[in-house]
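Subject: NR LBD domain-containing protein structure
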Amino acid sequence: MVLKNVTSESPSDVPSIINPINECKSEESFIPPAPVDNSRLNDDIKIEDNKILFDMKQINTHVNDIFSSSTSSLGNLGGYTTCLQRIIIGVKNLFNNMNYNHPDNVILTKQSDIRRFVKAWQRFIKYSPTLLMSLEEFVNFSLKDKWTIFRSFWRDAYTLISSVYLSKVKSPYNGALLLCDETYVIKLDDGEITDPNLDDKNSKEILNLMRPTLNLVHRYIHKPMKDDNYDEIEIAYIIVQMMFDRLTLDETSMECQKVGNEIIKLVNDELHNYYIYNKKMHNYAHRITEMTKLLSMVREYSTRHREIALISKWMDIIDMSLLDSI
């Protein structure tokens, strides 16, 4: 199935998606229902004086409760599982919680409310800790070490996971797309980000400020993700590299550093065995190089995103600094 253009998100603009036998579905018939949020957290978003506001303290408490558990989020799987196997299962659970299971239902629209982006970030911050807790080794870390890793991890992981989802979206448009949430994407070249509490000038400036960096994301993250068609185990490998980044580990306890380095060695061996015995691929150096480049660009984007957020706040366009209070 492919996307069809929509000029807005209003109920009166009913898009259709063309399936292989050229039948069309109305918007009401194929948009999945909102995911069930068992965490019962208040995700109300306000924008006042160009500042995004929501209950970050409540989300932090929720994350802290997850990290305070002494058991893996996967429980007992009934047999031995490797590090990458557990991460693969954790990613699938995260996709379910993010409602990232219906890429064929995604709609290309002209405009998107900025709150869609913020709600997607909220959901990821709430549910990605369970991905980390899928590793039994992570469960045994101190609460302080868990938070240190998570604060460094979540932005990079969101970029990667959302890129995996976007790579599955089939669109007749070959240019850069920006994922708003699980349901909507906009074109980067002429899309619009709106909100009733933002004036037209600031609404336009948000995307104008982000566009050069988002074009970088399209060229060096989204496009390679689609072209290289990474396997689940390769995505899991990249996630583990994010978790146990060298600079992040240096801020953790000696025990955490030791375990993290051991896990990196284990997943390297596991991926090697996967290529040799499962894929019958003996010359996989290029594949590893491309994954390393992808990870490097994800980190570069996170750095630029923080810089843009500071500029945006300073220019009084939009203040997203609440996300830094994790």
